[in-house]
Amino acid sequence: MVSVRSRLLKIASMAGKCKKPADIGTDHAYVPIYMVQSGMCSSAVATDIRKGPLQKARKNIEKYQLSERIDLRLGEGMKPIKENECDVFIIAGMGGVVITEILEESIEKAKKADALILQPAYYDEVLREYLLKEGFCIETESLVRDEGRIYTVIRAYYDGTVRSDDDLYYHIGRALFERKDPLLSDFLKRRIGIQSKIVDGMGKSVKCDEQTYLKEYNLLMKMKKAFEDYFMI
Question: Rounded to whole angstroms, how far apart are CA atoms 116 and 62?
């Protein structure tokens, strides 16, 4: 059985049992290997835009004798996946902007999927806003700690309902508050620290636009209030 880190384990668990997932930007192919071995799916597709990672993935797949069950494909984003071929798409370890671009370029495939499992490395606020505006429902979110850092994993699906939300919940998922994620306190503290540095830096800059500063300052205040409301009881 392949050994996977907590971040990848969380991604797999958020995908759950499915028919045929596609791991976009698979790197070492650990997620599809784990999912097939665990009986979460009978087969999977793993793609990457670069040949190097696919070579690593191939070695791992051969090591665990799964060549007949995990199909490797070279290509950009979701483009190597055929229409209606996969029911779940996993896109992890990329920036939120890049993930939105991948979804946008293959939007019809994304809409038909039973679930999108998305793990943005940064700019997750861009991804959440995109999902809601494009008619995707953020079903749930979960935090996971891996090698000292806390990551967000989002599970979403298309239902055609266009939504908007407060900018606080673009930056820190509403679902994390609703389900009282056990790592939310630590995660929120870190985000408050980052936002404080942004506001301080803008306040000292002579080129700072007042409207932009107020937007970032108000976001910081919302983060602090959210922390007080949830954890200072």
Answer: 27
